[in-house]
Amino acid sequence: MDSTTPSEILVNIDIKTYPCILYPSLEKFLTSLNTADLNQGWSEQFFKPLKLSGVRSLDDMIIVSPQSLHVFYGLPPITIMDFYAHALESIELLHVTAGTSICVICQSLR
């Protein structure tokens, strides 16, 4: 039997965002996840909890911790961390795509 506790799985995630980058809406991000991974039901699991937590776009993920999604909404820790992995991957891809178009102020934050 696995003796792993949620607190061992749910780690704080450091998400770096830039004000000059336009991040997709929560709806658009979840739709793209659903399209890429049809059997996970990302929208059904995460839309309401994230919306109630104040997330409107992907960069708003900085205001929600993995622990809060588990404690307040009862989402499974493994699923939460998988979701955060997808979110971080999407954010990083946006940063790479933006590359040289990141403004001078944001470049100083890197």
Write a compact overview of the structure shown:
By secondary structure, this protein is mainly α.
Q: What structural class do helix, strand and pairing data support?
A: mainly alpha
Tell me about the largest β-sheet.
none
Q: How many E-type strands?
A: 0
Q: Helix tally? A: 6
Summarize model confidence as the mean pLDDT: 87
The parts where pLDDT drops under 50 for at least 5 residues are none
Order of helices and strands: HHHHHH
* Fraction of residues in helix: 55-70%
Give the overall silhouette.
globular
- Counting copies of identical and different chains, the oligomeric state is single chain
Number of domains: 1
Strand content: under 5%
Question: Could you describe the 3D structure shown?
Answer:
The chain has one domain (10-109). Helix content is 56%, strand content 0%. The protein is built from six helices and no strands. The radius of gyration is 15 Å and the shape is globular. The mean pLDDT is 87.
Task: Give the tags.
56% helix, 0% strand
Helix-strand blueprint:
Layout (H helix, E strand, L loop, with lengths): L5 H4 L16 H11 L5 H11 L13 H8 L3 H22 L5 H6 L1
